[in-house]
Predict the structure of ABC transporter ATP-binding protein.
Amino acid sequence: MIEIEDLTKSYDGTVVVDHVTLTIQPHTICVVVGTSGSGKTTLMRMINKLVTPTSGTVRIDGQDIADIPAYELRRRIGYAIQGHGLFPHRTVGQNIATVPKLVGWDKARIARRVGELMELFQLDPGQFRDRLPHELSGGQQQRVGVARALAAEPNILLMDEPYGALDPVIRAKAQDDLLAIQRKFGTTVVLVTHDMEEAIHLGHTIAVMDEGKLLQCAAPAEIIANPATPFVAELIGTSERPFRLLSLSKVADHIEPGEASGEPIAAQASLRDAYAELLWSGRPALPVLRDGQIVGQVTLDALAKLAARPQ
Ligand SMILES: Nc1ncnc2c1ncn2[C@@H]1O[C@H](COP(=O)(O)OP(=O)(O)OP(=O)(O)O)[C@@H](O)[C@H]1O
Protein backbone atom coordinates (compact mmCIF):
# COMPACT_ATOMS: atom_id res chain seq x y z
CA MET A 1 0.00 0.00 0.00
CA ILE A 2 1.21 3.50 -0.80
CA GLU A 3 0.03 6.15 1.63
CA ILE A 4 0.62 9.74 0.62
CA GLU A 5 -0.16 12.11 3.45
CA ASP A 6 -0.41 15.87 3.27
CA LEU A 7 2.36 15.95 0.68
CA THR A 8 3.53 19.35 -0.57
CA LYS A 9 6.29 20.44 -2.92
CA SER A 10 7.26 24.07 -3.52
CA TYR A 11 9.91 25.49 -5.79
CA ASP A 12 11.06 28.99 -4.80
CA GLY A 13 7.82 29.62 -2.96
CA THR A 14 5.60 28.31 -5.79
CA VAL A 15 3.51 25.37 -4.63
CA VAL A 16 3.35 22.70 -7.35
CA VAL A 17 1.94 19.85 -5.24
CA ASP A 18 -0.44 21.17 -2.64
CA HIS A 19 -1.24 19.11 0.49
CA VAL A 20 -2.11 15.92 -1.37
CA THR A 21 -3.43 12.97 0.63
CA LEU A 22 -3.99 9.75 -1.29
CA THR A 23 -3.93 6.03 -0.53
CA ILE A 24 -3.18 3.52 -3.27
CA GLN A 25 -4.27 -0.01 -2.41
CA PRO A 26 -1.90 -2.89 -3.11
CA HIS A 27 -2.32 -4.75 -6.41
CA THR A 28 -4.30 -1.91 -8.01
CA ILE A 29 -3.68 0.58 -10.79
CA CYS A 30 -4.09 4.23 -9.83
CA VAL A 31 -4.06 6.60 -12.79
CA VAL A 32 -3.20 10.25 -12.12
CA VAL A 33 -4.77 12.62 -14.66
CA GLY A 34 -4.80 16.37 -14.99
CA THR A 35 -3.79 19.21 -17.23
CA SER A 36 -0.20 19.98 -18.08
CA GLY A 37 1.69 21.46 -15.14
CA SER A 38 -0.83 20.26 -12.55
CA GLY A 39 1.89 18.48 -10.56
CA LYS A 40 1.34 14.86 -11.61
CA THR A 41 4.97 14.03 -12.36
CA THR A 42 6.21 15.84 -9.25
CA LEU A 43 3.73 13.90 -7.10
CA MET A 44 4.84 10.60 -8.61
CA ARG A 45 8.55 11.40 -8.28
CA MET A 46 8.11 11.99 -4.58
CA ILE A 47 7.10 8.31 -4.27
CA ASN A 48 10.54 7.11 -5.43
CA LYS A 49 12.51 9.98 -3.91
CA LEU A 50 13.53 11.53 -7.21
CA VAL A 51 11.95 14.67 -5.75
CA THR A 52 12.21 15.55 -2.05
CA PRO A 53 8.95 16.79 -0.53
CA THR A 54 8.80 20.20 1.10
CA SER A 55 6.48 18.68 3.70
CA GLY A 56 4.32 15.62 4.26
CA THR A 57 5.06 11.91 4.14
CA VAL A 58 4.94 8.91 1.85
CA ARG A 59 4.66 5.45 3.40
CA ILE A 60 5.09 2.19 1.56
CA ASP A 61 3.60 -0.80 3.33
CA GLY A 62 3.55 1.28 6.49
CA GLN A 63 7.19 2.40 6.28
CA ASP A 64 8.08 6.08 5.87
CA ILE A 65 10.23 6.32 2.73
CA ALA A 66 12.40 8.89 4.49
CA ASP A 67 13.74 5.86 6.40
CA ILE A 68 14.37 3.73 3.29
CA PRO A 69 17.71 4.16 1.48
CA ALA A 70 17.33 5.29 -2.14
CA TYR A 71 19.01 2.12 -3.51
CA GLU A 72 16.48 -0.05 -1.75
CA LEU A 73 13.57 2.03 -3.03
CA ARG A 74 14.96 1.71 -6.55
CA ARG A 75 14.76 -2.06 -6.23
CA ARG A 76 11.26 -2.02 -4.84
CA ILE A 77 9.89 0.56 -7.26
CA GLY A 78 10.12 0.26 -11.04
CA TYR A 79 10.04 3.45 -13.08
CA ALA A 80 9.07 3.78 -16.73
CA ILE A 81 8.96 7.16 -18.44
CA GLN A 82 7.77 8.75 -21.66
CA GLY A 83 10.30 8.32 -24.47
CA HIS A 84 11.39 5.11 -22.67
CA GLY A 85 14.61 6.62 -21.25
CA LEU A 86 16.66 3.71 -22.59
CA PHE A 87 20.44 3.95 -22.53
CA PRO A 88 21.22 4.46 -26.23
CA HIS A 89 24.63 2.74 -26.23
CA ARG A 90 23.53 -0.31 -24.25
CA THR A 91 21.87 -3.29 -25.85
CA VAL A 92 18.30 -4.31 -25.08
CA GLY A 93 19.62 -7.05 -22.77
CA GLN A 94 21.91 -4.65 -20.93
CA ASN A 95 19.13 -2.08 -20.60
CA ILE A 96 16.76 -4.59 -19.05
CA ALA A 97 19.53 -5.86 -16.74
CA THR A 98 20.28 -2.39 -15.30
CA VAL A 99 18.59 -2.65 -11.91
CA PRO A 100 19.25 -6.36 -11.21
CA LYS A 101 22.93 -5.59 -11.83
CA LEU A 102 22.80 -2.56 -9.55
CA VAL A 103 21.36 -4.61 -6.74
CA GLY A 104 23.90 -7.39 -7.21
CA TRP A 105 22.04 -10.32 -8.79
CA ASP A 106 24.39 -13.00 -10.17
CA LYS A 107 24.90 -13.29 -13.92
CA ALA A 108 22.85 -16.43 -14.44
CA ARG A 109 19.85 -15.02 -12.59
CA ILE A 110 20.05 -11.77 -14.58
CA ALA A 111 20.26 -13.65 -17.89
CA ARG A 112 17.24 -15.77 -16.91
CA ARG A 113 15.21 -12.75 -15.91
CA VAL A 114 16.09 -10.82 -19.09
CA GLY A 115 15.06 -13.79 -21.21
CA GLU A 116 11.83 -14.26 -19.28
CA LEU A 117 10.83 -10.60 -19.61
CA MET A 118 11.67 -10.48 -23.30
CA GLU A 119 9.46 -13.52 -23.89
CA LEU A 120 6.71 -11.91 -21.81
CA PHE A 121 6.84 -8.75 -23.94
CA GLN A 122 7.01 -10.77 -27.16
CA LEU A 123 10.54 -9.71 -28.05
CA ASP A 124 12.39 -12.81 -29.27
CA PRO A 125 15.62 -12.83 -27.20
CA GLY A 126 17.60 -14.40 -30.06
CA GLN A 127 16.60 -11.56 -32.34
CA PHE A 128 16.52 -8.57 -29.99
CA ARG A 129 18.77 -9.13 -26.96
CA ASP A 130 21.89 -7.65 -28.61
CA ARG A 131 20.23 -4.85 -30.55
CA LEU A 132 20.65 -1.21 -29.62
CA PRO A 133 17.53 0.85 -28.82
CA HIS A 134 17.70 2.78 -32.12
CA GLU A 135 17.36 -0.53 -33.96
CA LEU A 136 13.87 -1.01 -32.49
CA SER A 137 10.47 0.47 -33.37
CA GLY A 138 8.85 2.92 -30.94
CA GLY A 139 6.49 0.23 -29.66
CA GLN A 140 9.36 -2.20 -29.09
CA GLN A 141 11.38 0.47 -27.27
CA GLN A 142 8.38 1.14 -25.08
CA ARG A 143 8.15 -2.55 -24.16
CA VAL A 144 11.84 -2.65 -23.32
CA GLY A 145 11.32 0.41 -21.09
CA VAL A 146 8.57 -1.35 -19.14
CA ALA A 147 10.52 -4.65 -19.06
CA ARG A 148 13.49 -2.75 -17.61
CA ALA A 149 11.27 -1.17 -14.98
CA LEU A 150 9.98 -4.60 -13.97
CA ALA A 151 13.35 -6.37 -14.09
CA ALA A 152 14.13 -6.55 -10.37
CA GLU A 153 10.60 -7.78 -9.59
CA PRO A 154 9.43 -4.58 -7.94
CA ASN A 155 6.04 -4.69 -6.29
CA ILE A 156 5.42 -1.08 -7.29
CA LEU A 157 5.65 0.32 -10.82
CA LEU A 158 5.56 4.06 -11.55
CA MET A 159 4.79 5.02 -15.14
CA ASP A 160 4.97 8.58 -16.45
CA GLU A 161 3.06 9.01 -19.73
CA PRO A 162 4.44 5.65 -20.87
CA TYR A 163 2.31 5.50 -24.00
CA GLY A 164 2.41 9.17 -24.99
CA ALA A 165 4.49 8.60 -28.11
CA LEU A 166 2.71 5.51 -29.45
CA ASP A 167 0.18 5.39 -32.28
CA PRO A 168 -3.36 4.36 -31.27
CA VAL A 169 -3.13 0.71 -32.33
CA ILE A 170 0.20 0.03 -30.59
CA ARG A 171 -1.00 2.05 -27.62
CA ALA A 172 -4.07 -0.13 -27.16
CA LYS A 173 -1.87 -3.24 -27.35
CA ALA A 174 0.60 -1.78 -24.82
CA GLN A 175 -2.28 -0.96 -22.45
CA ASP A 176 -3.61 -4.50 -22.69
CA ASP A 177 -0.10 -5.85 -22.04
CA LEU A 178 0.10 -3.73 -18.91
CA LEU A 179 -3.27 -5.01 -17.66
CA ALA A 180 -2.19 -8.61 -18.27
CA ILE A 181 1.15 -8.12 -16.52
CA GLN A 182 -0.40 -6.29 -13.61
CA ARG A 183 -2.84 -9.17 -13.14
CA LYS A 184 -0.07 -11.76 -13.43
CA PHE A 185 2.32 -10.18 -10.93
CA GLY A 186 -0.15 -8.22 -8.77
CA THR A 187 2.05 -5.14 -9.17
CA THR A 188 0.77 -1.89 -7.68
CA VAL A 189 0.89 0.64 -10.52
CA VAL A 190 0.78 4.43 -10.45
CA LEU A 191 0.45 5.80 -13.97
CA VAL A 192 0.42 9.44 -15.06
CA THR A 193 -1.43 10.41 -18.23
CA HIS A 194 -3.18 13.31 -19.96
CA ASP A 195 -5.61 10.93 -21.56
CA MET A 196 -8.93 10.33 -19.81
CA GLU A 197 -9.71 7.44 -22.14
CA GLU A 198 -6.53 5.71 -21.00
CA ALA A 199 -7.31 6.49 -17.35
CA ILE A 200 -10.75 4.90 -17.61
CA HIS A 201 -9.42 1.87 -19.44
CA LEU A 202 -6.56 1.17 -17.03
CA GLY A 203 -7.45 2.62 -13.66
CA HIS A 204 -9.00 0.84 -10.70
CA THR A 205 -8.94 4.36 -9.32
CA ILE A 206 -8.43 7.71 -11.00
CA ALA A 207 -6.82 10.64 -9.18
CA VAL A 208 -7.61 13.99 -10.77
CA MET A 209 -5.18 16.86 -10.19
CA ASP A 210 -5.40 20.56 -10.95
CA GLU A 211 -2.94 23.25 -9.94
CA GLY A 212 -1.18 20.94 -7.49
CA LYS A 213 -4.36 19.89 -5.71
CA LEU A 214 -6.01 16.49 -5.73
CA LEU A 215 -9.63 17.20 -6.70
CA GLN A 216 -11.02 13.66 -6.62
CA CYS A 217 -9.85 10.11 -6.29
CA ALA A 218 -12.37 7.39 -7.03
CA ALA A 219 -13.24 4.45 -9.26
CA PRO A 220 -13.83 5.39 -12.93
CA ALA A 221 -17.59 4.76 -12.78
CA GLU A 222 -17.88 7.03 -9.74
CA ILE A 223 -15.86 9.82 -11.36
CA ILE A 224 -18.00 9.64 -14.50
CA ALA A 225 -21.29 9.56 -12.60
CA ASN A 226 -20.41 12.04 -9.85
CA PRO A 227 -17.56 14.36 -10.79
CA ALA A 228 -16.53 16.27 -7.66
CA THR A 229 -16.03 19.64 -9.37
CA PRO A 230 -16.88 21.31 -12.70
CA PHE A 231 -13.21 20.86 -13.67
CA VAL A 232 -13.43 17.09 -13.21
CA ALA A 233 -16.64 17.03 -15.27
CA GLU A 234 -14.92 19.02 -18.00
CA LEU A 235 -11.96 16.67 -18.01
CA ILE A 236 -14.27 13.67 -18.48
CA GLY A 237 -16.00 15.49 -21.32
CA THR A 238 -19.72 15.92 -20.67
CA SER A 239 -20.79 14.65 -24.08
CA GLU A 240 -18.50 11.62 -23.72
CA ARG A 241 -20.00 10.36 -20.46
CA PRO A 242 -22.36 7.70 -21.89
CA PHE A 243 -19.60 6.24 -24.05
CA ARG A 244 -17.16 6.26 -21.17
CA LEU A 245 -19.66 4.34 -19.06
CA LEU A 246 -20.04 1.77 -21.83
CA SER A 247 -16.28 1.43 -22.20
CA LEU A 248 -16.06 0.20 -18.58
CA SER A 249 -17.95 -3.05 -19.26
CA LYS A 250 -17.51 -6.07 -21.48
CA VAL A 251 -20.11 -7.59 -23.78
CA ALA A 252 -19.60 -10.84 -21.82
CA ASP A 253 -21.36 -9.34 -18.80
CA HIS A 254 -24.48 -8.29 -20.74
CA ILE A 255 -25.37 -11.25 -22.92
CA GLU A 256 -29.09 -11.85 -23.39
CA PRO A 257 -30.78 -14.94 -24.76
CA GLY A 258 -31.96 -14.71 -28.36
CA GLU A 259 -30.71 -15.00 -31.90
CA ALA A 260 -29.45 -11.89 -33.65
CA SER A 261 -28.32 -11.95 -37.26
CA GLY A 262 -25.17 -10.83 -39.04
CA GLU A 263 -21.51 -10.61 -38.00
CA PRO A 264 -21.02 -11.53 -34.34
CA ILE A 265 -19.05 -9.54 -31.78
CA ALA A 266 -16.54 -11.09 -29.38
CA ALA A 267 -17.66 -11.52 -25.78
CA GLN A 268 -14.41 -9.84 -24.71
CA ALA A 269 -15.18 -6.63 -26.66
CA SER A 270 -16.20 -3.55 -24.70
CA LEU A 271 -19.80 -2.39 -24.70
CA ARG A 272 -18.59 0.76 -26.38
CA ASP A 273 -17.30 -1.28 -29.32
CA ALA A 274 -20.61 -3.17 -29.42
CA TYR A 275 -22.53 0.10 -29.43
CA ALA A 276 -20.44 1.47 -32.28
CA GLU A 277 -21.03 -1.72 -34.29
CA LEU A 278 -24.80 -1.63 -33.60
CA LEU A 279 -25.05 1.95 -34.85
CA TRP A 280 -22.73 1.40 -37.78
CA SER A 281 -24.48 -1.73 -39.04
CA GLY A 282 -27.97 -0.43 -38.25
CA ARG A 283 -28.91 -3.61 -36.36
CA PRO A 284 -30.95 -3.78 -33.13
CA ALA A 285 -28.83 -6.67 -31.79
CA LEU A 286 -25.53 -8.47 -32.42
CA PRO A 287 -24.79 -12.17 -31.94
CA VAL A 288 -22.11 -12.73 -29.28
CA LEU A 289 -19.22 -15.10 -29.96
CA ARG A 290 -17.36 -16.86 -27.16
CA ASP A 291 -14.85 -19.69 -27.69
CA GLY A 292 -16.05 -20.10 -31.27
CA GLN A 293 -19.72 -20.45 -30.29
CA ILE A 294 -22.64 -18.05 -30.52
CA VAL A 295 -23.81 -17.71 -26.92
CA GLY A 296 -26.61 -15.12 -27.20
CA GLN A 297 -26.98 -11.50 -28.19
CA VAL A 298 -26.26 -7.98 -27.05
CA THR A 299 -29.00 -5.45 -27.79
CA LEU A 300 -29.19 -1.74 -28.53
CA ASP A 301 -32.01 -1.36 -25.98
CA ALA A 302 -29.87 -2.79 -23.17
CA LEU A 303 -26.92 -0.59 -24.07
CA ALA A 304 -29.06 2.54 -24.17
CA LYS A 305 -30.16 1.79 -20.59
CA LEU A 306 -26.59 1.13 -19.44
CA ALA A 307 -25.34 4.38 -20.98
CA ALA A 308 -27.96 6.50 -19.24
CA ARG A 309 -27.17 8.69 -16.22
CA PRO A 310 -26.82 6.48 -13.12
CA GLN A 311 -29.66 7.08 -10.63
N1 LIG B 1 12.74 21.25 -10.77
C1 LIG B 1 11.78 22.18 -10.86
N2 LIG B 1 12.02 23.46 -10.56
C2 LIG B 1 11.06 24.40 -10.65
N3 LIG B 1 9.79 24.15 -11.03
C3 LIG B 1 9.49 22.90 -11.35
C4 LIG B 1 10.44 21.83 -11.29
N4 LIG B 1 9.84 20.68 -11.66
C5 LIG B 1 8.57 21.00 -11.96
N5 LIG B 1 8.34 22.32 -11.78
C6 LIG B 1 7.08 23.02 -11.99
O1 LIG B 1 6.08 22.36 -11.26
C7 LIG B 1 4.84 22.35 -11.96
C8 LIG B 1 4.30 20.94 -12.05
O2 LIG B 1 5.15 20.17 -12.90
P1 LIG B 1 4.88 18.64 -13.20
O3 LIG B 1 5.94 18.19 -14.15
O4 LIG B 1 4.73 17.93 -11.92
O5 LIG B 1 3.47 18.72 -13.90
P2 LIG B 1 2.70 17.63 -14.76
O6 LIG B 1 1.29 17.67 -14.30
O7 LIG B 1 3.41 16.34 -14.68
O8 LIG B 1 2.83 18.25 -16.21
P3 LIG B 1 2.94 17.54 -17.64
O9 LIG B 1 1.67 16.78 -17.83
O10 LIG B 1 3.08 18.69 -18.58
O11 LIG B 1 4.15 16.65 -17.60
C9 LIG B 1 5.10 23.00 -13.31
O12 LIG B 1 4.65 24.34 -13.25
C10 LIG B 1 6.60 22.95 -13.43
O13 LIG B 1 7.08 24.03 -14.19
Summary: The pocket of adenosine-5'-triphosphate is lined by residues 11, 16, 34, 36-42, 194 (CB under 6 Å). The radius of gyration is 21 Å.
